[in-house]
Automatic annotation (TrEMBL):
Protein name (record): EAL domain-containing protein
CDD domains named among the record's database cross-references: EAL, GGDEF, PAS
Molecular function terms from GO: cyclic-guanylate-specific phosphodiesterase activity
Domain PAC: start-end pairs: 461-513
GO BP terms: cellular response to nitric oxide; signal transduction
One Gene Ontology CC term in the entry: membrane
Entry's transmembrane regions: 30-51, 166-185
Signal peptide: none
Chain coiled-coil ranges: none
Catalytic activity: 3',3'-c-di-GMP + H2O = 5'-phosphoguanylyl(3'->5')guanosine + H(+)
Annotated source species: Chitinimonas arctica
EAL domain ranges (all copies): 687-941
Every HAMP domain range: 187-239
Length: 947
């Protein structure tokens, strides 16, 4: 708009533009402009008039001076011109030329031709030139003429200087006048005007203070006073207005707050109505439903239109309608409300719904009844909960587990029947008692306090608790304790489920015992012994002590087990376990690894060698015969000893090394002990390797029998041979029986090998006979395992039948140590074998177990004097005496006697003299392969003459 207006003005007439320009000037600018114009116009006019006057005056003065110069020359030149004296005229003219306004002077005579004098200075022409001339009279005669050319440049300059002076004068006057006028204007008019403006501005300013009073009596002073009056009036009015405004604002705010509170309250109640979990409806005084909340619609499972506008009574079950009506009519309408009462609502399509009902009378502002609030709460869940509570109470009372509720003050709040039965208290005896009443007084109270801390800190705890019954009897219970907290997390009751686990504990202990102890011997089993041993090793490690681990294996136990049955074997193991245990000091432990293997851990050894005392004690204890039912058994052990820490620092190493040492003991004749040495493991590995190879040797037919002749000392005839096994090892060549028979015995392989030997010996003997060689006995060595193992008689019968050898050509050699293992059983076996017609010999006779008392009962044919006695006869008196005694014994018992290991003629002679029947030894022949032996046989009688 302004822009348009401005542009309109700028494009209007100059007058309009001027007016507009003027309208935009301030009052001061207008005053300045008016005063300036008012002073300038007369000043300019005055200056122009003055200049005009001065020009006329100066021009006039210039003409006068021209006339005078011209006159002066015309007069001065009369004579010279008359005289034509240039010298006289020239100075006059030169003098005139000194006036700078004269450009030229020309003096003409009355004679023709050249001027009498002519002087011209052209450069003096700067303005307008004026030429004046005058005739020169000499008397009345004109004798010449003077012509002067004047320049008005000087006149003009003087006029211009005069004009500048006027302009300057007027300018100064104008400025001074303006300043004076402005000063006056400002002090008398503009200043007060500004004050009036400032005063006017304060009219609407409520905070403004009263202006200084106007002292002048002119119009401005009046205006100022009027303005001050108006200001104070306005101020007063504004004050009143503000007060009213404030009051109004307060009123509006209060009203808005009230309205807001009303709206919030209404929304709240509406929200309460809508979100209430209870069903709520509003009915008029006739029971017509005016409004219903979603909970009620959900309760009845109907849409709003099915309920609103309908009689609420139509949803009340028939049976409850009168009652409901009674409550509304006689309670709600009379008292204004009623307490909760139960009715049943009809739920379309879904039967009846138990609800609690409540009614509140609604009134209008004049307290006139206008309707009834109905509040209906679903009781389905509450009834179910009540049912559950009832059930829980029954469970609580009838459950087999004892339950105790402890109140926060640590007193027993309630117990169930099982509890009273378990603890022996009647309910009223125990309820109210402190929970500590059931503590076992022998238990450190800290145990119970710790349990209390556990369940309080963690909310629950379960575990074993020692309790005391009313009778004083203590028992172990399994308690599951749970802390019940209220919603704030505060500890409420503590519920404890208590189960008497005394029986289970005993069972557990039994199970633990079974898990730890060998059922047969009641010694720690392999696993538990390891535990104990590892503890003992750790303890030794801590205290820098020694320990010894003994590996005990019974010699030939398998034989006993197989021959006499497992019952006897079991009894023997029990007895052995007892004896081993008795041989130990307190703190030492013996365990059973399995079978006939026992391990012993010795503590508190001053030095490793101390273990040998225990080993010897064990050997001595076990050396005593065992009387098991009708059997008297002799069992020897082989013991291996490893020492902590020198032979191993952990249990497995110690056991492995003791085992290796035990094998070494077996290899060294059994019934002894060996300390572990580093090379034993290599030996153990070798044994393992031999065992594996032995298993394959039978399949690969790697065994062979050599036969050593047995010569009758009287005739020199070979009357028999001893079959001695060799192993044609694919790598080691021919391996002697001592290299593998003990291992075969130990590892249970001797049965199969022995069978093979028996069969092969019988077959070969039968073959020799079939070749027509003189018939001889073949003697076969029997191991204990063969002797006590399977039915030996039956096996031999089968072999004899198979090979066709007559029983009388087969002799069996059994060592003393074998037959004394179980005397009764041996007697029976020997009798059976004897009955078959076989020959029987006791090998190695005299080496230790000579049970002379039983010898008569043994049905043997021959005693074989051990090589250890023979080798030193006749030189050694003792051996000679023993040999002699054995020969005599045999003779007295009616038995034959054969001496083995005869290597020298002296031995031969001694034995011959003593009456020995037969001999066997390198003197006659080493064991020979079957074909070599056949050749010997073929050669007939032994040539004794050379001996
Ligand atoms: N259960 C089985 N045991 C067997 C069987 N074959 C052999 N053996 C037993 O092995 C032991 C060693 O036998 P071997 O190395 O064959 O030694 C026998 C003879 O070679 C040796 N002998 C014989 N005469 C002499 C002699 O003059 N000097 C001397 N230094 N040694 C000699 O004696 C061994 C025979 O002894 P024995 O049996 O006591 O008569 C040996 O104990 C065999 O019993 C087998 O098949 N089953």
């Amino acid at each position: 708009m302004d822009t348009a207006a401005n542009s309109g003005h700028s494009t209007g007439s100059p007058l309009a533009r001027g007016r507009h320009w003027l309208s935009r000037l301030s009052l001061r600018q207008v005053f300045v402009l008016v005063v300036a114009v008012g002073l300038l116009v007369p000043g300019v006019l005055f200056t122009l008039l003055m200049l005009d006057w001065r020009r006329d005056e100066l021009t006039r003065q210039f003409r006068t001076e021209q006339e005078r110069v011209l006159e002066t020359l015309a007069l001065g030149l009369r004579q010279p011109l008359w005289d034509l004296s240039l010298n006289a005229g020239q100075p006059l003219v030169d003098t005139a030329m000194k006036d700078p306004r004269i450009v030229s002077v020309r003096v003409d005579g009355s004679f023709p031709g050249e001027p009498f004098i002519s002087i011209i200075v052209p450069e003096r022409r700067q303005g307008r030139a004026m030429q004046l001339s005058r005739p020169v009279h000499f008397g009345d005669q004109i004798i010449g003429k003077v012509l002067i050319e004047f320049d008005d440049g000087d006149l003009r300059r003087r006029l211009a200087a005069q004009a500048r002076e006027y302009v300057l004068l007027i300018g100064v006057e104008l400025v001074v006048s303006l300043l004076l006028i402005l000063l006056l204007l400002d002090s008398r008019f503009l200043g007060p005007l500004r004050r009036l403006i400032e005063q006017a501005k304060t009219l609407t300013d409520h905070e403004a203070v009263a202006a200084a009073p106007w002292v002048r009596d002119d119009e401005i002073g009046d205006l100022g006073r009027q303005l001050e009056w108006a200001r104070s009036e306005l101020h007063r009015l504004f004050g009143e207005l503000n007060d009213k405004n404030d009051a109004l604002e307060l009123d509006i705010v209060e009203r808005m707050q009230t309205e807001e509170a009303l709206r919030a309250s209404e929304a709240k109640y509406r929200e309460l109505f809508l979100s209430n979990l209870d069903g709520i409806c509003v009915t008029d005084m006739n029971g017509l439903v005016l409004d219903a909340n979603p909970a009620l619609l959900a309760l009845l499972d109907v849409p709003a239109e099915a309920l609103v506008g309908k009689q609420l009574v139509s949803f009340v079950a028939e049976a409850w309608r009168n009652y409901d009506d009674h409550m509304i009519q006689h309670r709600v309408l009379v008292d204004g409300h009623c307490g909760e009462y139960e009715i049943e609502l009809y739920r379309p399509g879904d039967g009846l719904l138990p609800v609690s009902a409540k009614g509140v009378l609604m009134r209008d502002v004049d307290a006139r009844p206008i309707g009834v609030w109905r509040i209906l709460r679903d009781l389905t869940e509450r009834k179910a909960a009540a049912l559950r509570m009832e059930l829980a109470a029954k469970v609580f009372d009838n459950t087999a587990e004892a339950i105790m509720v402890i109140a926060p003050d640590n007193h027993i709040a309630s117990v169930n029947r099982a509890f009273t039965e378990m603890l022996g208290y009647a309910t009223d005896e125990i309820v109210g008692q402190p929970s500590s009443v059931m503590r076992d007084a022998t238990i450190d109270p800290e145990v119970y306090e710790n349990i209390n801390r556990q369940y309080i800190n963690h909310g629950a705890w379960q575990g074993e608790v020692p309790f005391r019954r009313k009778s004083g009897e203590t028992f172990t219970a399994w308690a599951q304790i749970n802390v019940v907290r209220d919603v704030t997390g505060r500890i409420g009751d503590v519920v404890a489920l208590i189960r008497d686990i005394s029986d289970a504990k005993q069972a557990q202990e039994r199970i633990l015992h079974l898990a730890r102890f060998d059922a047969l011997t009641q010694l720690p089993n392999r696993a538990y012994f390891r535990e104990l041993a590892e503890e003992a090793i750790a303890e030794a490690h801590r205290h820098h002590e020694h320990r010894a681990l003994l590996f005990v294996d019974l010699d030939h136990f398998k034989t006993i087990n197989d021959s006499l049955g497992h019952d006897v074997g079991d009894q023997l193991l029990k007895e052995v376990a007892g004896r081993l245990h008795d041989a130990l000091r307190a703190g030492d432990v013996v365990g059973r690894l399995g079978g006939d293997e026992f391990v012993v851990l010795l503590r508190n050894l001053d030095e490793g060698e101390d273990a040998s005392y225990v080993a010897n004690r064990m050997l001595a204890r076990l050396a005593q015969p065992f009387q098991l039912n009708e059997h008297e058994l002799v069992v020897t052990p082989s013991l291996g000893i490893s020492l902590y820490p020198v032979d191993g620092e952990d249990y497995d190493t110690l056991v492995r090394n003791a085992d290796a040492a035990m094998y070494h003991a077996k290899e060294n004749g059994r019934n002894t002990y060996r300390f572990y040495t580093a090379d034993m493991n290599a030996r153990a590995l070798e044994i393992l390797s031999v065992e594996n190879q032995l298993r394959r040797a039978l399949e690969r037919d790697e065994f062979v029998l050599h036969y050593q002749p047995q010569v009758d000392m009287g005739s020199g005839r070979i009357v028999g041979v001893e079959a001695l096994i060799r192993w044609r090892h694919p790598e080691r060549g021919l391996v002697g029986p001592m290299q593998f028979i003990p291992i075969a015995e130990e590892r249970g392989l001797i049965g199969a090998i022995g069978q093979w030997v028996l069969r092969e010996a019988c077959r070969q003997n039968q073959a020799w006979q079939a070749e027509g060689l003189p018939p001889i006995e073949v003697a076969v060595n029997l191991s204990a395992m063969q002797f006590y193992g399977r039915d030996l008689a039956q096996d031999i019968t089968a072999i004899l039948a198979e090979t066709g050898l007559a029983p009388r050509w087969l002799a069996l050699e059994v060592t003393e140590s074998v037959i004394v293992q179980d005397v009764e059983s041996t007697i029976a076996t020997l009798a059976a074998l004897k009955g078959m017609g076989l020959k029987l010999a006791i090998d190695d006779f005299g080496t230790g177990y000579s049970s002379l008392s039983y010898l008569k009962r043994f049905k043997v044919d021959k005693l074989k004097v051990d090589r250890s006695f023979v080798m030193d006869v006749p030189g050694d008196a003792d051996d000679s005496a023993i040999t002699r005694a054995i020969v005599n014994l045999a003779r007295n018992l009616g038995l034959q006697v054969i001496a083995e290991g005869v290597e020298t003629p002296e031995q031969w002679s001694f034995l011959k003299n003593e009456g020995c029947d037969e001999v066997q030894g390198y003197l006659i022949s080493p064991p020979l392969p079957a074909e070599d032996l056949a050749k010997r046989l073929a050669r007939g009688a032994w040539r004794l003459g050379s001996i």
